[in-house]
Write a structure and sequence with these properties.
The chain has about 90 residues and is mainly alpha-helical. The chain contains 2 helices and 2 strands. The protein has helices spanning about 5-10, 70-80, and strands at about 20, 30-35. The radius of gyration is 15 Å and the shape is elongated.
Amino acid sequence: MNSADREDAFSAKGHYAVSCDLLPTERPGNHIQGDVLEILDDGWDLMVAHPPCTHLAVSGARWFKDKRDDQEAALGFVRHLLNAPI
């Protein structure tokens, strides 16, 4: 299920559902184009997050030693999401 389908499913149940991405939405609907870190404190009830796994996935473990800075930045992003007041 992609984020648009999830938004539709929540909306169909009467919830106000919004997607947020750095990229524009590919279809009409409630969408915030921007950095999710800027809206984490806006009083949300639920967050379904899919942080990029480029620098975190174990499938790339053989390159971990060469990507420590990228990994730390990715982990910092995940920590912001985990610590959001939601």
